[in-house]
Amino acid sequence: MSDGTANGAHERTGLLSFTEDDHSRKIIDFTDWDDEDPRNWPKSRKLINVGIIALMAVLSPLASSMFTPGIAQIAADLNTSTDVVVGATTGFVVFLGIGPLILAPLSETFGRRKLYLSCFSIFAVLQIPTALSPNVESLVAVRAVSGFFGSVGIANGGGTISDMFHPSERAGIFGWYLLGPLLGPTLGPLFGGLIVQHLSWRWVFWFLTIICMINTALGFLFLKESYAPAILESRKQKYEQSEGGKFRIANQDDRPFWTKLASSMQRPLRILFTQPIVLTMAIWQAILFGTTYSLYTNFEAIYGNRYGFSSTQVGLVYLGPGLGFFICVWFLVPKIDTIYNHLSRKHENDGKPEYRLPLANIGAVLIPVSLLWFAWTVEYRAHWSVTVLSTVFFGLGQITVLNTVQNYYIDSFQKYAASAIAAGAVFRSIVGGVVPIFAPAIFKNAGYGWGISAFAFTSMALSPAPLLFYTYGARIRERFAIEL
Hints:
The protein is mainly α. It has helices at 43-65, 71-77, 82-110, 112-131, 136-150, 152-164, 167-198, 202-222, 228-243, 257-274, 276-296, 299-306, 311-317, 319-332, 334-346, 360-379, 384-413, 417-461, 465-479, and strands spanning 16-17, 26-30, 247-249. A hairpin with an 8-residue loop joins strand 1 (16-17) and strand 2.
């Protein structure tokens, strides 16, 4: 792990430079104003890349929850129980977390673009057999596999943004990108409710097929490679073909290919289990995702049974946390860069990853408070608007925590940001997929008041983490430093 700087200059010295190494091979590297260095791309080109991968990061989580309003319809159509159908969400979300463990390090070996296009093409095609599922077993199986390939946008989005933007400007862009993994599960039930009510549950997946194929086509047309080693490797091959002789990439890893690949595949788990800060933050994110999916999969029961909402009206409830997401990204997330730059200047332009964490304390308070608010207003059947208002603050808290933590990962691991983010993603997705299976039983036995309060108390236990790591994080990172 290493510290960032206020301007990001140490991460890459952005034209091509040639020098001779000890083996008389010319060294290829970026120079300060190289227009093919992703950090020097025009802003419009960067934003096209961000837009395409953000849509990928929206669509796979959208697919995770879009069919939830049709759970009862699916169960009746496939002659099974609703609890078994929930397994289609569990398998998808679990593999959405496992995917980054493999896809993130592969992108750090072969480049980002190849992984995005190949994996998302498969994800788009897999929506067809999902729509045609003749039984619940095939539905669950195909959903699980599609979750793996659909995770590519989540696995590599943070790394791609790190490729293109300096630390001093990164958080604001990353905030809009991160809306995808959170807005997907939020908007999915809204769109799904409309489709299920007016067509059928199978049309949910035909809709996903169409949208995913359009996004894949846009990727083939407009998505550019952003991973610096992959760009330099392409240049190296061109120079060797056109000029002859041997060239070498600056800081090139000369280990055999399979050794490098094996090392890269181990990287996310090494980061997760050797870095106390990453492990703690991953557990915190896992609790948040477990809570989120437990609530989302039970909104139909809460608002349909307790408040008499139709499927479409239940879908509109998900706009509560969605509104919180937008408020946070618009007003709070840009302050992550502001605070980071201010603290960097205050310490002689010595930017540290810990300078990303102060705003996480807001989320640390909002999450348990909003959950307790939601729990007991639902328990005592307060007016529906009071319950939905609490979800706005829950959305605010979620975005604040996830944005600061993800930016912390990027600044700490820089070149291997995708692997660091994958390390946190696997935990949160597995917990987010498994916990909702047990949530209905918890709510049935303990009631919504104490059942949802249990999630609030669990998140409260980790609320001091941002403050502790802001104070002691640099020392912890130094003590547990690893060579990646």
